[in-house]
Hints:
Bound molecules: NADPH dihydro-nicotinamide-adenine-dinucleotide phosphate, guanosine-5'-diphosphate-rhamnose
Mean pLDDT: 92
CATH class of the domain at 31-224 and 259-287 and 320-342: Alpha Beta
Cofactor: NADP(+)
Strand order of the largest sheet: 3-2-1-4-5-6-11
Helix content: 25-40%
Structural class: alpha/beta
Shape: globular
CATH superfamily of the domain at 31-224 and 259-287 and 320-342: NAD(P)-binding Rossmann-like Domain
Largest sheet: 7 strands, parallel
CATH topology of the domain at 31-224 and 259-287 and 320-342: Rossmann fold
Low-confidence stretches: 1-23
Function: Catalyzes the conversion of GDP-D-mannose to GDP-4-dehydro-6-deoxy-D-mannose.
Domain NAD(P)-binding: 36-351
Radius of gyration: 22 Å
Distance between the termini: 24 Å
InterPro entries: GDP_Man_deHydtase, NAD(P)-bd_dom, NAD(P)-bd_dom_sf
Strand content: 5-15%
Amino acid sequence: MASSDSAGAAGSEFNNGPLASSSIPAAVPERRKVALIAGITGQDGSYLTEFLLGKGYEVHGLIRRSSNFNTARLDHLYVDPHNSSKARMKLHYADLSDASSLRRWVDVLLPDEVYNLAAQSHVAVSFEIPDYTADVVATGSLRLLEAVRSSSSSSGKPIRYYQAGSSEMFGSTPPPQSESSAFHPRSPYAAAKVAAHWYTVNYREAYGLFACNGILFNHESPRRGENFVTRKITRAVGRIRVGLQTKLFLGNLSAARDWGFAGDYVEAMWLMLQQDEPGDYVVATDESHTVQEFLEAAFGYVGLDWKDHVVIDKRYFRPAEVDSLKGDSSKARKVLGWKPKVGFQELVKMMVDQDIELAKREKVLVDAGYIDAQQQP
Ligand code: NDP
Ligand code: GDR
């Protein structure tokens, strides 16, 4: 979907240089706001892109090279730039581990807003690949901040920056957690996010950059990666319902999380960058449920008993767990005027409904012999 040619296309579109005032026609349309999203192919990237396109933005996304296409969450938004002048979402190759690629795209695109959503975002995996996780999540954020600072300083163009912080940064600090709660990270991922948080604060204080940290609690959707616990559960419910699976292997069921809907949370990211002053905000539903409660809701919704299907497997326990997260998002509600629209039960139903439809389509392929029923997400 992205092409290395896109650099030229984007460059010629945005680097036209100033027009002489006499040559400006009376009704020049206002320049669209330009957003640059790192991590556009992820769950949040796809919802944020939809949201910003709806606000009239030109959206550019940085994607990394993969041997398989990694743009499935964006396919419904894609317009081939070769076939249409209407494409308002464009994709470019870059990587948070490659500073030169980040600086190049910030220079070429001159964005108004940069959203850093890119990360190795799986907590358990961060124990397996800690060095890589730190490089992308912590140093990668520093690389992008520095690209924004140095490009903005050279061009004189102000750029607003959003950093995707996480409730995992609170770790073992007891709930409710707010902006003033202490960070006590419990994984390489969380420690790297704490570093990225402080890099962002430092660039704000040192250089006056309009940089915000969103401290977002867990947010889910039908587009959630399939190895996060909520989606793993709803995928299994769908597959069990249509007869493609019988067991679901899970780890710690007693951990409690504050689960919201990703579509609601991207609005809060945008709102942070529309304020007069930059700041840091907790974004949460302020309600907490255990993994077991999620299981009860998801299996119960389709008339199944989770105890008939769930098997505890110690491989899914983490070396250090975050036991209980519950946000206090009163600052975001007061200052940003934000609040979540989708509650816990509605979120579970939305995810189960879509995963039943997905499992039905999967079953057609299994019955036709195209895929193996044993393949589990
Ligand atoms: P996802 O894992 O779905 O998406 C992560 C994105 O980062 C993907 O686009 C991925 O690309 C990209 N990425 C990974 N490594 C690199 C790299 N080296 N260079 C460039 N891009 C890279 O995460 P979410 O959408 O759920 O989360 C978005 C952000 O918010 C993440 O930073 C996450 O840590 C953070 N966060 C998420 C929360 C949640 O509950 N969802 C809560 C709090 C914070 P690819 O598609 O190629 O893998
Ligand atoms: P989390 O999400 O670690 O909170 O990070 P995840 O869904 O992975 O785990 C939530 C809780 O469920 C328990 N659990 C399992 N988790 C997974 N993935 N697989 C299992 O089989 C399983 N069984 C039990 C976990 O131990 C944990 O307690 C997410 C990510 O999106 C981060 O990027 C983000 O920063 C935080 O949310 C906020």
